[in-house]
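Q: What would this chain look like folded?
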Amino acid sequence: MAMLIDEESKEYYIKAGHIAGRALNYAIKLAKPGVSIRELLDKVEEKILLSGGGLAFPPQASVNTFAAHVCPTKDNDIILKEGDVVKIDVGAEYEGFIGDTATTVYLGDDPEIKNLVAASKKALEEAIKLLKPGCKVNSIGKKINETITSLGFNPIKNLSGHGLGVYEFHDAPTIPNFDNGDESELEVNEMVAIEPFSTTGAGFVKSSGEATIFNKIQNKGTRNPFAREALKIIDSLEELPFSQTFLENKLGKPKTRIALAELKKLEIIHEHAPLEERSGGLVSQHEHSFLIGEETIITTMVDDDE
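A: My prediction, written as structure tokens:
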């Protein structure tokens, strides 16, 4: 389950949240038609590192029907255009404690799409009102579902919020976006992330396209020199996810291509493929991280990008 932190550790968790929140605010300002997603994500990574944090996972910018895990390389870059619905997901770690936050930037003026974006934002706002010790996770999902459907859209049911452990960006409990019947209760000093997704589609995502995000899942030897070189780098990440671009910047493209192929074949790393709404619906997302208490702290909510 998600770690229950003590008073001494709270400052680390809040610090991570503030770093992530400011990085997200910075990303929002960068997201404009004509901007390269790869360049945007590179600048967000730099912002996190210069702020004294590390990457809890590679920042992502998933467009239109894609909900998550879009992290292009330089060779398959995406240029934002007018009318795009851009989900920006940012994670920072500080001493292993994690801040995970996301928002949606709509680069258009269609009222229906603006309502879609408002639906996930409103669902998060309503969920926040429930967050205290003893709150049942299915009641959060029920509130998210009711809010999104009342505005004429569907929640994405096979994506969810989650606990945050130390060097563990997806931990128990699972926080659903609908009432899944789980009556597990939130506890004092538990770290969680809540992330409603709203869609014009059926409300389910599927893997779609080539993965560019990975994480190590087991220790196993390899004779391939490039894979061994890559593992030395990956092992420094405490099993947190990394991007293909991260390795390319360290090893170069040819070595990275060979190393990833070998590590995937040996099942040393797990792929996180882009996730697209199954019926082709547009997707909106909003997310914050929380430290549960009688006065729950929203660690990733910050007012500026300083």
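The mean pLDDT is 96.
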